[in-house]
Design goal:
The chain is of the alpha+beta class. It has helices spanning about 30-40, 80-90, 175-180, 180-190, 230-240, 310-325, and strands spanning about 1-10, 15-20, 50-55, 60-70, 75, 95-100, 105-110, 120-125, 145-150, 155-160, 165-170, 200-210, 210-220, 225, 250-255, 260-265, 270-280, 280-290, 295-300, 305.
């Protein structure tokens, strides 16, 4: 079977897009899982954080399904949603769309460039819940917001929220970031444990200056990634709730893959929160794989068509981000 792949990334969080919107393709659940494990394996000729399957939708412009590199399915992916938004925008010739995801239909739109020449999309991150049952998190509290969780650490303050992916967020110092605490803690809560039975994404956040934060995330099903869109959105919300930033104001969120902007919104009447995630949707290359779905790890790869100009522009953004982070 021949499958066309589009390699793309949002903030260095990289994916393959497989087009089921216009192409005559169909996969079983097992085949989707096995394709993700095989094609995303970084020891192969390819490698990525996950696969974004773009499908037809009965109620939206398109549907997105996200499979992590370990074969698990994620309910949402903010960086991936931006990439899907660009793909669907170009296929349908629209600048504003609705994308169906596992739990909710989300508004996406092409927007002002985050950096000159870089295609940029704004996507809605919602719903937001602080109910521990929605992560799930087994604690005897109605919510966890900037509080200690002694089962994990005696000194760090944690916040737990679903957006709808589950996230555990801690504000930390440079010294904590430089340590191995995050890796050990995150690995523990993504193995069998009493607190997070389904695992959780773990973000350590450093406050840089007003309106600017740095986020590093250990993603459930992936490990450390260059960036996680829902994690950056959740982290931005937490900084607003603890008084470091303000709702309805742009927050520049830096990460190991570059930067995005987030805007937190709150409806006082309903209590609803949602976040605008604004950032790049960059194409790296197109290629095709010839694959036996019964043995996907033995795929063969055809020649790649590179998007060299896009890649070089994003490298310039990354260089500027690295320079800035060295000063704060």
């Amino acid at each position: 079977m021949k499958i066309e792949l589009l390699k793309t990334h949002g903030s260095g969080n990289d994916f393959f897009i497989i087009d089921e919107l216009t192409a005559d393709l169909a996969f079983t659940e097992e085949e989707r899982r096995d394709l993700a494990v095989s094609l995303c394996n970084r020891e192969s000729e390819l490698g990525a954080d996950g696969i974004l399957f773009v499908l037809k939708s009965e109620r939206a412009d398109a549907r997105m399904r996200v499979f992590n590199s370990d074969g698990s399915e994620a309910s949402m992916c903010g960086n991936g949603l931006r990439c899907v938004a660009r793909f669907v925008s170009e296929v349908l010739g629209k600048t504003s769309m609705v994308i169906e995801t596992m739990k909710v239909d989300l508004q996406v739109e092409k927007t002002e460039e985050i950096y000159s020449g870089i295609p940029t999309f704004k996507v809605e991150i919602s719903p937001v819940s602080f109910n521990p049952e929605d992560l799930p998190l087994h604690i005897d509290k109605e919510k966890l917001l900037n509080e200690r969780l002694p089962e994990l650490d005696d000194s760090l303050l944690f916040s737990a929220l679903a957006v709808p992916n589950p996230h555990l967020v801690a504000m930390v110092s440079s010294e904590i970031l430089a340590s191995d605490i995050q890796e050990k803690l995150a690995a523990g809560v993504n193995e069998p444990n009493a607190l997070f039975p389904d695992g959780v994404n773990v973000s350590f956040v450093k406050n840089l200056e007003p309106g600017n934060i740095y986020v590093r995330t250990y993603e459930r099903g992936v490990g450390f990634t260059n960036a996680c869109g829902t994690a950056m959105s959740a982290s931005s919300l937490v900084t607003c709730l603890i008084g470091l930033n303000e709702a309805d104001q742009e927050i520049s969120v830096y990460n190991n893959g570059g930067k995005v902007k987030c805007v937190v919104h709150h409806d006082a009447e309903t209590g609803r929160y949602w976040i605008d995630l604004i950032g790049n949707a960059t194409y790296e290359y197109k290629t095709s794989v010839n694959v036996d779905l019964a043995q996907p790890s033995s795929f063969t790869l055809e020649e790649r068509e590179l998007y060299t100009e896009e890649t070089e522009l994003y490298k310039k953004l990354q260089a500027e981000v690295k320079e800035y982070l060295a000063t704060v």
